[in-house]
Automatic annotation (TrEMBL):
This is Uncharacterized protein. The keyword Nucleotidyltransferase does not apply. GO terms for biological process: tRNA 5'-leader removal. One of its GO terms (cellular component) is ribonuclease P complex. The keyword Transmembrane applies. It comes from Ignisphaera aggregans. InterPro entries: Pop5/Rpp14/Rnp2-like, Rnp2-like_sf.
């Protein structure tokens, strides 16, 4: 008697699995037909905004530093920390450097998380053969606000 109950429950389970698979296929086809009919692309629905953020940082070095060498080293080390896929979405460049104040302003262009990733990468890395460190001081969406914050002029 218990064997019959086991076979019946197995048959009911298999039948329910088949019904779910058939319904899933039908619903998937109906949704695809609706999307094709309305001309909506799934990729076009996601809006990607590129946001610019500016980071004011203090650059502490043992020796005098060349801005080109620092820029290349920062980009290389951020690439190695973030990886190539994240770096494709994030762009980090030095837009201003004042050796007398030991201050630099970085521009981060990308989605909202890029500035957080770049802040993390700048905080954790040593640059130019580990003779420089960069300490992020302030992040802002407006370059003029950063310049006003520190009395930093061109």
């Amino acid at each position: 008697m218990s064997i019959y109950i086991a076979f019946i429950s197995l048959a009911i389970s298999l039948t329910s699995i088949v019904i779910v698979v058939i319904l899933y296929r039908d619903i998937y086809q109906a949704v695809n037909n609706l999307i094709d009919e309305l001309g909506i692309a799934l990729i076009a629905r996601k809006k990607y905004r590129r946001i610019k953020r500016y980071i004011l940082a203090k650059v502490i070095c043992k020796d005098d530093v060349d801005i080109r060498k620092l820029s290349e080293d920062v980009e290389r080390s951020v690439n190695s920390l973030l990886g190539r896929i994240l770096k494709m979405n994030c762009s980090l460049t030095i837009i201003s450097f004042r050796p007398d104040l030991n201050r630099a302003i970085f521009r981060v262009v990308g989605d909202g998380m890029c500035s957080k990733y770049c802040l993390l990468a700048l905080s954790l890395q040593h640059f130019i053969s580990e003779s420089c460190i960069i300490i992020p001081l302030k992040s802002s969406g407006l370059l003029s606000r950063l310049r006003r914050f520190t009395g930093y002029r061109k």
